[in-house]
Amino acid sequence: MKVQKQLFIRKFLRRFFKVILYGFIISLVYLVLCKWLMPPITITQLGNWIGGYGLKRDYVSSADISPNAKLAAIAGEDQLFPVHNGFDWKAISKSLDNNSSKTKRPAGAAASTIRQQAAKNVFLFHGEGVTRYMRKPLEAVYTKLIEWIWGKQRILEVYLNTSEMGKGIFGIEAASRRYFNKSAKDLTRNEAAMIIACLPNPKIYSVKPVSRFVNWKSRWILRQMNNVQGDKNIQALIYAK
Question: Is 192 helix (H, G, I), strand (E, B) or coil?
Answer without folding.
Answer: helix
